[in-house]
Amino acid sequence: MPNIEDKLKEIMALVFDVPTTDINEDTSPDDLDNWDSIGTINLITALEDAFDIEFEDEEILELLNFQLIKINIEEKLEA
To answer: Mean pLDDT across the stretch 28-53?
Structure first.
């Protein structure tokens, strides 16, 4: 089973239609053309399904880059 970071990279690459090598700790909407409002909705949906978690509206506003998303997922899985 892939670790959270690898799984997150795979999901982001799939959602934003980029190679996983384009995803790193600092990746944000500024780095990926497809990471717009619709892309964000698709990413959140994919993450909720893949990790069996649910984001609150205020949490979604904090998911500003790869690192923050990873931290949020880790916190949810530990709870």
So the answer is: 96
Amino acid at 41: I
67 phi and psi angles, rounded to 5 deg: -60, -45
For residue 66, the one-letter residue type is: F
- Decide: 66 and 25 in contact? Cβ < 8 Å: yes
Say what the pTM is: 0.92
17 — alpha (psi -120 to 50), left (phi > 0) or beta? Answer: left
Name residues whose C-beta falls within 8 Å of residue 34's C-beta, 6 or more positions apart in sequence.
Answer: 15, 16, 17, 18
